[in-house]
């Protein structure tokens, strides 16, 4: 800065000396014109001199900074990844519920396939045959093989109630053990007829109904049946209910 000021002062001094010299040599009008032009030219030269100008333009070469460019590229990927993780973090709850729903649906489908392949067939439990009905022993071993003949002998021996009781006991035993009629200990005479009808043939059903009616009239009505009627029941018992009888048509 000081060198510039000194140069400007030296140029002004030279211009002043030139003007003074011209004033001594040239006439006054010419001196005035020369003085003005010389001063302007001197100032222009001084301003054009790069060494005396207060401003300078300097051009320099610089290497490109590769690190900054790589950092910019990296910053672009990093910002994208940051945005991705932020989106995942915001949608994590929704994704979790979607995953739970899918797992539950898959589990339901799996369980449905597993249980659909399992068929449950309840085993039919065969009811145990009763040993007594209304306090009457109906076990086969408690009865004679020829029930009709044994009942007829009791009737002829004037043991009328015992003869009718033997026929009725034999009827219940054969219905339970030969025809699988679901008779229980508390089954009444009317229930016996209702349960036996679907499992017997028509002729056997008619015989059973007649025997039950004779039994009811004798026990509950105190009415003695005709001897011919009792003989017919005794003779027909073994024909309708033989000892080794198989279940009749319609029996299950």
Structure explained in plain terms:
- The chain has 252 residues and is an all-alpha fold.
- Among the domains are: 2-48; 132-240, no CATH class.
- Helices cover 65% and strands 2% of the residues.
- The chain has eight helices and two strands; from the N terminus they run H-H-H-E-E-H-H-H-H-H.
- It has helices spanning 2-25, 28-48, 66-116, 147-156, 160-177, 189-196, 202-219, 227-240, and strands at 132-133, 136-137.
- The chain has a two-stranded antiparallel sheet.
- Strand 1 and strand 2 (136-137) form a beta hairpin.
- The radius of gyration is 69 Å and the shape is rod-shaped.
- The two termini are 134 Å apart.
Question: What descriptors fit this protein?
Answer:
252 residues, mainly alpha
Number of strands: 2
The averaged pLDDT comes out at: 76
The best one-word shape is: rod-shaped
Main sheet: which strands, in order across?
Answer: 1-2
Largest sheet: 2 strands, antiparallel
User: How many separate helices?
Assistant: 8
Helical/strand content category = mainly alpha
Which residues sit in consecutive blocks of at least 5 with pLDDT less than 50?
A: 245-252
In short:
This protein has 252 residues and is an all-alpha fold. It contains 8 helices and 2 strands; from the N terminus they run H-H-H-E-E-H-H-H-H-H.
Present the secondary structure layout.
Elements: H1 2-25, H2 28-48, H3 66-116, E1 132-133, E2 136-137, H4 147-156, H5 160-177, H6 189-196, H7 202-219, H8 227-240
Helix pairs in contact: 1-2, 4-5, 4-8, 5-7, 6-7, 7-8
């Amino acid at each position: 800065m000081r060198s510039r000021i000194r140069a400007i002062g030296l140029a002004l001094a030279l211009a002043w000396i030139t003007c003074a010299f011209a004033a001594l040599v040239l006439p006054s009008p010419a001196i005035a014109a020369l003085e003005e032009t010389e001063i302007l030219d001197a100032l222009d030269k001084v301003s054009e001199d790069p060494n005396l100008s207060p401003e300078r333009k300097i051009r320099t070469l610089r290497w490109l900074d590769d690190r900054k460019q790589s950092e910019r590229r990296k910053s672009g990927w990093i910002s994208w990844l940051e945005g991705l993780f932020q989106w995942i973090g915001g949608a994590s709850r929704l994704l979790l519920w979607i995953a739970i729903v899918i797992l539950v649906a898959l589990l339901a489908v799996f369980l449905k396939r597993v249980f659909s392949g399992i068929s449950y067939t309840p085993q039919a439990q065969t009811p145990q045959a009763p040993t007594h009905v209304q306090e009457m022993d109906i076990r086969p071993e408690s009865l004679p093989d020829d029930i009709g003949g044994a009942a007829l002998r009791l009737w002829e021996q004037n043991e009328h109630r015992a003869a009718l009781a033997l026929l009725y006991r034999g009827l219940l035993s054969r219905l339970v053990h030969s025809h699988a009629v679901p008779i229980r200990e508390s089954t009444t005479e009317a229930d016996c007829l209702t349960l036996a009808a679907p499992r017997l043939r028509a002729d056997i059903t008619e015989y059973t109904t007649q025997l039950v009616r004779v039994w009811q009239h004798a026990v509950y009505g105190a009415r003695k049946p005709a001897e011919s009627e009792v003989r017919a029941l005794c003779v027909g018992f073994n024909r309708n209910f033989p000892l080794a009888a198989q279940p009749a048509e319609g029996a299950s």
